[in-house]
User: Fold these one by one.
Assistant:
Number 1:
Amino acid sequence: MLKPTRLFSFLIVFLIFWGNPVSAQNDWQIIDESLNQKLNSDPNIALEQAQQILDTNQYTFETNHEAWFSLNEIIAHAQVNLGYFDSALVIATQLYEQHNAQTYPIYRVRALLLLAMLSERRSEVKNVQAKSLEGLKLLKNVKTPHPILKADLYALLGTSYRSQADYGNALKYAKLAAELSKSNLPKLARAHNQIGVIYDYSGNFELSLKHHELSLNIRRQNNNQQGISDSLYNIGEIYRDMQQFKQALQHFKQALKVDQSLGNPYHIANSHGKLGQVYLAMGKIQLAKEHIKQGIEITKSMKAPGDTGWQLSNMAQVYIAQGRFDEAQTIAMEALELALQADAKRTEQTIRMTLLDISIKQGNLKLAREHIELLLSMPNTGLQYQQKLYQVSAKLYEEEGNAVDAYQSLKQFVDVQKKRNVDLQKQQTARLRQNVEVIRQEQELNLLLKEKDLQQAQLNNLKLQRGIVMLIMLLLAGAVLMIYCKQVTKQKMTDLTASMLATNLEEKNQLLADVSHELRTPLAALKLSVELLEHNIEPDVNKAYARVHGKISQLDNLIGDIYRSAQFDNNVMQLNKERCNLGALIQDIVSDFEPQFQEKPQSLTVSKLPSNLMCTVDPERFKQIIINLLNNSLAYTYENGETHISIDVIDHGSTKKVQLIVADSEPGLNDIELSKIFERLYRVESSRNRDLGGSGLGLAICRQIVLAHGGEIVAEQSALGGVAFKVQLTINNV
């Protein structure tokens, strides 16, 4: 899966592409530049992002040819950097075959560049030169100049000539690449690095170091990690050639660390090989052997014969240092065969010098002389190698007692030394010229960097201005939206308030009508009794007075219930809570009601009450709940019926609740009637009517008291045939 940093960068690219298809077409150059930058800093991310974008089919050969080609090109370049040469070769070959020179000359040149790069990584020198020259020939026939593309081809040509030890042509093409790369700092850094390597191989360490430092500075400013590694690697080579092994070791170690973070096997193998050479020169043979062995394993897996030959030649030097000359001879011959296969002349010279050392160590003077003659006959054997070869030849002739040939070899040694002195003088003159040129290039580079910084500052300023404009627009849009939402909310609140007022007014009117109706019945009966008494019509005066007192009591209860209900509605119900025993409260009330239940008759039973169920409640209000429920049961249950009371503690997860149940026998209620039973002044006309007494507010008051305690009350069908009222109060909250 993708790492958090990779996933984030891909999402940005994805949103740019898919947020607006038209915008994605216009912004392709920005995305292309971003992906190309990642090729140098993290080729794995570049490979993943380019492949994911290509898989979306947002860009195809037909819809956007340039974007489609660039994505394939980036994928191939990333695969080359990561050592996936076979996969890259498939893509490069397909791109080459799909674009003929007449219709798509530039795309064909770019495909040739990929093929040449792959050949260079596999040490196929002739293929590098053939593909590069083919690309340069095509560019001559194109009207529009493509300096960077031409610079890339020149750079590859220079590298191929350098591997053949043809430093004249190598320097020529490297300088051409540098001249064409002035407008592209990463390419310019690459050219300086290549020129520095050629000067190093030519023995001009001062100029070599100068160019490498220029290259390193540019790459650091552009955060080109792979370029930084290359520069560190090449500077390490200079220090190695100058016998400053500690400095060389530091640079090679740092280069290897960067290479391993980027995962490019080609560079990792080279860094291991150079570390092996330095450790061998320092006498640390085991460390040298370990690094060279790792380099051999990597180059063999890459199928790069030239690089493998160079690594094997390093291992042969390790065996020579250990005195294992036969093993050194075997591995050196294997290395020579690979170098010849890859046409790597410089590597071939290095291996033949190693074979010369082995033959001398083994005392095989005839074979040593053959190696010397062969090396001297090679066209690109440098003066330094020639001088060493004539010196060794003179020593061999001297050991054989052949004074004439020994003298001749010494004479040739002196001639070469004179040539070297002349060359050194020429190099010093050239060095002075180069120093002046380097100073000029530094000035030009500084101007380019300043110009780039100015352009970047202008770009940042433009982005900032656009950002400010966008921010202002967003703020304005937000303000408009906020005002709109506020108005909508205000209107909704106005409508809701009006609706609530209308509902409250309607409810109040209905309540007044219901209360008037409830008061009218006992008042009418009371008025009739008083009139009968007033006109002496009532036959039984005592019974009439009893009826008057009963109706007055009924009116008093009704008014009291209305008052208690109004307290809850107006949120002024006061609870005087205290710690009390609920079981004892229930027992007191049951004792008061037992005579009334016996008189009806109706049985009243109580389950075994908990001995010490302590809760914090308002005892008078809690009693009112039980009283109202018992009155309700007493009034509406048929004669010879039964009423049952129970109280228990039940668990509700992390909380405990007290549950009071008052259940009675027939008559029962249906579900619709049960859902309305707690409404004020509601009566079930068929069974629990007004003639049975009561205000019609008792159950509503029970519900209000329970809610004031933070509990709940429900009415269900009772197992006894009537109604079961369940009251639950949370112990922790009561």
Number 2:
Amino acid sequence: MAIDKSNALSDIERQRQANIAEQKALLKELQLTQPTGKFASAGKSAKSDSTKSKKRAAPKRVKEEESPTPRRQSSRLQGLAADSEVAKRKAEEQYEAAKEVERVKKIRRTDSFTQNDMFVAGQKLSGHSLIGIDVVNKGVAEPYLRTFGDEEIEKTTDKDLKALREEMNGLKLWDKWDPQRIKITPERVYTMAFHPSETKPLVFAGDKMGHLGILDASQEKPEVKQEDEEEDDDPDPVLTTLKIHTRTISSMTVHPSKPTSLYTASYDSSIRELDLEKTISVETYGPESTNIDEAVSAIDMAPDDPNVIYWTTLNGGFARYDVRTRKNSVSSWQLSEKKIGGFTLCPSSSHIFATASLDRFMRLWDLRNLSFDEPEPIAEHESRLSVSHAAFNAAGQIATSSYDDTLKIYDMGPKGISSWAKGHTMPDQEFRPDTVVRHNCQTGRWVTILRPQWQLNPQSHIQKFCIGNMNRFVDVYSAGGDQLAQLGGDGITAVPAVAVFHRSKNWVAGGTASGKLCLWM
């Protein structure tokens, strides 16, 4: 008997359409109401089967953020009807409230606060224990490869240079504790400074979240008793952590004639003074409104005046303020359309200062004839890429670091900087670097920008500065571009990008992105 294939196919097609209609109705019901009972189980089972058939999803990337932005939450996931106006309004209110909490955290604090207010971790400070009673690289190296050492020293023919090289290479990594155990700040180190005391190596470090870390390197490691060795009782170094700013601490300084005060500048638009005897922090300067964003990038003070603070901003501004006057009596200039990353005053002629900016220029300025309306530099030099910092020393020499992988040294001493009259300018063809040193400055996103820092009062007639090395060292150079040392040691597992000299002693400190301290003495 012949089978009518068209009727059979028609029956199958009708059954398939009926199944599809039934599934659509079920899905519609599941979307409109909260699944319960067997429907909930069925939904989970279907979702599980569907997941198995799909390609395995790649793991989610976790983005590091300074303060996570609150996320909106689905009403359906909260067990509320999707079309509920009450649920929508509640979710919006929760989101805005969380967003406001995060905003308030970043607003600078204008009030004064004591050690108890800002203490985070470590040992609380006392004035007596803190201050004491005296108040040319040939190319970019391969990763982690030393490029300067004993062989280069032996080849040196200049007696003075050789003696200084031997002295600087004789510095040893502080061995009381392994560098991995000296976590001076909770987050990435952005700036560091030594206290000017020559009897106590006191190191300050500021991180990207506004913490100030303090280490007294004169401390001795306590002896572990024999009965405690079995318990592995090996104490960490005594550190102190204070929360003095709400955002990145970008710069800090201690004036040698005012050793009881540490001035710190921050991206929260404020400059604060920390009394090292009383451990009280007060705001020295801040915009009139906390809603004004004028992130401070660097501060400096003239050697002969402990009462006037100078600073630059990420908005290209420059300002001067006398702490003995009212807060609103600030003189300010707009020197650049782009970020000024660093600047310093000339120690021997404090009316002259140098700025380094994102627009690729290093410029010299004279405060004596600096117009408020249209300020003009007295000299400028353009690099191929942005200039990170411009550091003056007492001899009138300027060291800059740039993203074109060079360190440039400009010698203004022979050009008579100390005798320049008001209105003196230099043509571009005369204002050029006297020495260019090849140096890898490609720090990337996670390493703090490399900046040169001079020893302000060296005991030798040879001027010298230090700068971080991407191969996990700190390099020391002379003003003539000769490398004097490459400081390293066991236990350094990250780049000591923030490197600073003590103003007179041959002490060098380096800070890493993990908040660790490396100290050579």
Number 3:
Amino acid sequence: MSYSTSTRLLSLIIPLVLKLLRSVHALWKNEDRPTLPIELKEAEFKQNSAKVIASLLDTDPAKLKEDDIGQWLHVIRERGYILLGLCAPIQGAFSDLLESSSIAEAIMENLNCMEFRHVSKLIDLVLIPLVKNCPRELLGEWILKLLRPLFRYCCEDIFCDAWFRLLNEGRAGYCYYFGCPRGSEDNVKKFEDYLLLDLTRKVSKLLGVLASLEPNDALMRVDLQPLSTVKTASCDSKCASSNSVVGHSILNDCFEMLKMTLLGSWVDGEATLDAVPFCHALVQVAVATNNRKLRLFIVDDMLPATIKRLCDDLPCAVQQTIKKLSDQLDSSISKRASKDLLVLCEEIYKVYIHSQDFNAEDSDNENLRDPFKDWFARQKQELLVKASCAIPVHFPVKLWNWEFEEEFQRYLPTYIDILYEVDAMDDCPEYDYSDSSTLIKKLRPEFRSKHDINSLMDCHVWMIDKMVHRKLSKEYPKRRSHQLDKWLCKLITSKPYLKNSYESAMARLMENPTIDAKVSHLDVQDAVNMFYHAILSNLEPHFHPLVREGQKDFLIKVAHQFIFADETGYEPLEPESEDFPLHLQCHARSFIYRMKIESKYFEAREHVRLHQEFDNYLSSGELDDDIYCKFSSSETTEEFADNHLARGQFGSWTIISLDCLWRTELRLWICNAT
């Protein structure tokens, strides 16, 4: 077949293949979403696939076994992937045969429903050939349409969670995404480990292709130097162009949040060898663009993970998992990977650590020693110390994880920063934060710049949103009080004067409504009840207009005092463990508890409770008769107060400061009463 004939034939075949792939993918999608024939809409694929396929093929269901049909569909999918991948190297394929939107719809639409083996084949057979052979001028378009959904799925969804569970719980725990393999539990676990490792290798291979020298030649010319000396303007635009695939991917949010679990935390040597060039490119992009979020990932996540991987004797999740998977890992490849990781670690050290690590007293010895080796040895020793440190007194022993504690301590300054930012939003009750974009606009520019918050998908936005709603819930009583006060003032000053009619009072308030959208309409009825029962029932029993006209200011003062009698002052936003990621909540809870003990928070809270109890005692009327008798007694006020405290329930309290305060309060109360 000639070249022109084969390309014409492919131009007819590819659209049909894409439609077929979309249909096959939809069988794994949620049953209420597919736009497929009614037979497939109503089918539960796992249970009725043989019956459904048989009806579509006009075949006897008894002749078709479910496993055979599943294998048949897998073969269709794989051959479709192979066809697309083989088309990529054809000259002119990206302009004549392949269309980015159609392919993205066909293979990315149901990505989150795919099993790991399908994602592995998709990357290996389709995405890698497309990226390798895509013309330079089209790379940006294809990256955004294909790689953004892939990496967001891998970074934020099941893939990274599976690695996190494997590292920290011993098993990935997502049976469906491993294809529900059958057999003994040990064989199932080994099969799950194999599929997770295979997907990790394919993801790392794709990252290695992205970081290869040819598509990143503009980026590789950026000088590697300490961050403070880089002029970012020209580098930023250079990295944003499609000539730099890694820079273009980062600056266009292909990665919502980079995690080391995307790379398998360096557990697998084969995946590590492929991914290390990508990590070198990330360091280059961070230097060139001064991207704070990327820099934090490199310093606070990639670097600690690399050091842990290089510490063979460290009791950490990575080393334990390497031993667990030893029968599936090649030891010789792991040694080569360790060498590459050491080079990466040294590069990060030179860019971000060396200037801070340099000590003046060591300047004379600078040429006689290797500062990186000294620093690296100290880091390993510090990790060993952290791993063997004592568990805090109040921490549940079974839940202690020194790596989580280390992660929590790194994350704590950012959390405190966010807490202060939300607490400073004094105008937050005036805005509707149901729209997260409004919330982002209310953040101070310097805060957004410091934490690089530019998107609704930022990991900090959900935490800020949760804190704001917590703050709004505490603000609601205050807002309700102010609204009730406005309504009562309106009812008192309304003309003509209101008679004893709920309907007319409700109608009067609703004539020109000033109802806060955040306050329930049921509160209007509460305002009417207060107006009649709490304010007018005793002061204006006959509702005579002249009485209200002359006492209008007094009634408004009564209403104001009645509404705000129990209003509390400003309360700062308190930290809560639920603000943190789930695996850090226990460590956050322990830290908050320790801080409260050190600041004597619980003692202060008990003092407040006892003061309130003492205030209730004074206002209960139990001392009224004694105060009357004091007029005919020779006791001084101090003696009277001491006698009552001594025989009362508060006389046994031993804290001198509180006892003195109560005696002072009681004396003042007696003086006012007399």
